[in-house]
Amino acid sequence: MDWHLQKLKHVVDSGDFNRAAVDVVFKEALKMEKVRPGSPESRVLDGYIMSTLFYEPSTRTRLSFESAMSRLGGTVLSTESAGEYSSAAKGETLEDTVRTVEGYADCIVIRHNQEGSAKRAAAVASVPILNAGDGPGQHPTQALLDLYTIQREIGRLENIKVGMVGDLANGRTVRSLCMCLSMYPGVEIFFVAPEVVRMRDDVKEYLTKRGVKWTEVSDLREVAGHVDVLYQTRIQRERFTDMDSYNAARGKYIIDKELMQILQPHAVVMHPLPRVDEITTDVDSDPRAAYFRQARNGLYVRMALLKLCLADKKIADDLLQQ
């Protein structure tokens, strides 16, 4: 059954969303952009409680989820550094934590350092689980907000060229985005990464099976002049056990003012943030720098997801009939 028609909606894997479901989320996100304090829409989740369980650090994802819930009238139970300050420090399993917390909240947003953790949580949960990132695995809400940003910035999702740059082996954002982009015809993807963090084979095989053209390229300048979207990511130091490999990867691909001169006038630069030094700050004033607009779009998309997961189950059906 399509995601938007399911009674219990988890947001765990980007592959769970087809184009119809994405369209429903985007239609709702457009409405969320117009929500103002005191309006009827700002109270649609009044009485609902969202719990956030974050076992890894987060700024944008956690705060945007909490802001999204608050802007729709809901309440937040927040736990940061859950691995250190929750009962996980005493040895409690993730499954037991979820079974307990679902008694206190109507949905659970979880970020964990282990790939597949969100699926484990959803397997035992009777409330919606929203995956806020599971190690190097998936980050579906980021992928949806990235798609939404591309649609808003470029005006289409079909027939676009996307350059993905940086830590593609550990970057859950690019993995999830690849899965979502594969739904749209005419998409071409260029992978630009240091040898030690090249895109993993499972994603490349996924794209090939779906007829998506992809190419691995070593020259960022060669790609920059041809793409509609240049999606930069940081080299994730926390995923490395060998610092020599990290140092070999860091700083190889940097977007600066000189590179922006190559970028097409209509193209945009995106980044899931945080950045370190892979985009120089003098790029921020360029109108093609879309990463802060991208972060703001995360609020609207997460508002839409929370509303669809928690509010009247007829919302999505009504949207489709419009």
From TrEMBL:
<dbReference type="GO" id="GO:0006520">
    <property type="term" value="P:amino acid metabolic process"/>
</dbReference>
<dbReference type="GO" id="GO:0006207">
    <property type="term" value="P:'de novo' pyrimidine nucleobase biosynthetic process"/>
</dbReference>
<dbReference type="Pfam" id="PF02729">
    <property type="entry name" value="OTCace_N"/>
</dbReference>
<dbReference type="InterPro" id="IPR006130">
    <property type="entry name" value="Asp/Orn_carbamoylTrfase"/>
</dbReference>
<keyword id="KW-0808">Transferase</keyword>
<dbReference type="Pfam" id="PF00185">
    <property type="entry name" value="OTCace"/>
</dbReference>
<dbReference type="InterPro" id="IPR036901">
    <property type="entry name" value="Asp/Orn_carbamoylTrfase_sf"/>
</dbReference>
<feature type="domain" description="Aspartate/ornithine carbamoyltransferase carbamoyl-P binding">
    <location>
        <begin position="9"/>
        <end position="151"/>
    </location>
</feature>
<feature type="domain" description="Aspartate/ornithine carbamoyltransferase Asp/Orn-binding">
    <location>
        <begin position="159"/>
        <end position="308"/>
    </location>
</feature>
<dbReference type="GO" id="GO:0016597">
    <property type="term" value="F:amino acid binding"/>
</dbReference>
<comment type="subunit">
    <text>Homotrimer.</text>
</comment>
<dbReference type="GO" id="GO:0044205">
    <property type="term" value="P:'de novo' UMP biosynthetic process"/>
</dbReference>
<dbReference type="InterPro" id="IPR006131">
    <property type="entry name" value="Asp_carbamoyltransf_Asp/Orn-bd"/>
</dbReference>
<dbReference type="InterPro" id="IPR006132">
    <property type="entry name" value="Asp/Orn_carbamoyltranf_P-bd"/>
</dbReference>
<comment type="function">
    <text>Catalyzes the condensation of carbamoyl phosphate and aspartate to form carbamoyl aspartate and inorganic phosphate, the committed step in the de novo pyrimidine nucleotide biosynthesis pathway.</text>
</comment>
<comment type="pathway">
    <text>Pyrimidine metabolism; UMP biosynthesis via de novo pathway; (S)-dihydroorotate from bicarbonate: step 2/3.</text>
</comment>
<dbReference type="GO" id="GO:0004070">
    <property type="term" value="F:aspartate carbamoyltransferase activity"/>
</dbReference>
<dbReference type="InterPro" id="IPR002082">
    <property type="entry name" value="Asp_carbamoyltransf"/>
</dbReference>
<comment type="similarity">
    <text>Belongs to the aspartate/ornithine carbamoyltransferase superfamily. ATCase family.</text>
</comment>
<protein>
    <recommendedName>
        <fullName>aspartate carbamoyltransferase</fullName>
        <ecNumber>2.1.3.2</ecNumber>
    </recommendedName>
</protein>
<keyword id="KW-0665">Pyrimidine biosynthesis</keyword>
